[in-house]
Amino acid sequence: MNCYDRRDLGLLLLRLGIGGVLAAHGAQKLFGWFGGGGIAGTGQFMESVGYKPGNASALASGLAECGGGTLLALGLATPAAGAAAAAGMTGAAAVHAPNGFFNTEGGLEYPLALGLTAAGIAVTGPGRLSLDHALGHRFNRDWMVPAALAAAAAGASAAVCLRAKRLRQASGGEQEALFEK
Question: Which parts of the chain span the membrane according to its record (predicted)?
Fold first, then answer.
């Protein structure tokens, strides 16, 4: 007989909540569900905030959120799922950072909380009420945690840095145009 403890139940609730929220946000981007823009609408938004090409950025963001969130909720491939979701939220936090911290002002509070929680679940593990546990942790080995987080951090850093470079170049071009007038 399996006896689940408070930690297992707490991790299940955390995974279902955070994973469900992330999956829903990703479904907005990928499929246009829940009032989302789908790839085309999200791609236009991504272009407007400096992530180019827009459709590829929308696909990457949608997959990180929907795929990572779904896998987190299931407790499957937890290190990769949490790392992917955290990377996606890093990109979102970069967009919101100029607005400060608090979500009421459009700040980075919400994507930061989602990303840190996803990363925390990747590090902690899914608990015994998970597909990873049922499958003998084939996709949840200790070495996978730093590998997944490092790969996700590298990808997120590259995307955020490229965006920042594009935004600097765009604002420099606008400043040059002002001086030419």
Answer: 143-162
Residue 19 and residue 122 in contact, taking contact as beta carbons nearer than 8 Å: no
Q: What is the pLDDT of residue 177?
A: 45
Own/partner long-range contacts of 55-58 (Cβ < 8 Å, ≥24 apart): 57/159, 58/29, 58/30
CA distance 53 to 92: 16
Burial (0-12, 13-18, 19+ Cβ within 10 Å), 92: buried
33 token code pair: 């569900």
Name the DSSP class of 120: H
Query: Using one digit for the tens of pLDDT, what is the confidence trace for 85-109?
Result: 999 999 999 999 999 999 999 999 9
Read off the tokens for 145.
Answer: 């945690």
**Distance between CA atoms of 98 and 133, rounded to whole angstroms?**
41
Report which of 140, 163, 179 is spatially closest to residue 45, judged by C-alpha positions: 163
Phi, psi at residue 53, to the nearest 5°? -70, 145
Closest CA to 119 of 37, 28, 14, 29: 14
